[in-house]
Design a protein that fits this description.
- InterPro entries: Split_barrel_FMN-bd.
- This protein has 41 residues and is mainly alpha-helical.
- It is built from three helices and no strands.
- The chain has a domain at 1-25.
- It has helices spanning 2-8, 10-17, 35-38.
- α1 (2-8) crosses α2 (10-17).
- The longest helix is centred in the N-terminal third of the chain and has 8 residues, at 10-17.
Length: 41
């Protein structure tokens, strides 16, 4: 996922190269259920 974003936006990759801190990543994946079942409430 990171490589894909860096390919789309080179500044994204350049930021990581210019810092020594860890950049956290959260990956969200859709469930295999109809959207109606996922609705809140």
């Amino acid at each position: 996922m990171y490589a894909r974003q860096a390919a789309i936006d080179p500044a994204f990759a350049a930021y990581q190269e210019g810092t020594d801190r860890i950049i956290p990543v959260v990956a969200l994946y859709p469930e295999d259920r109809p959207a109606r079942e996922n609705a809140p409430g």
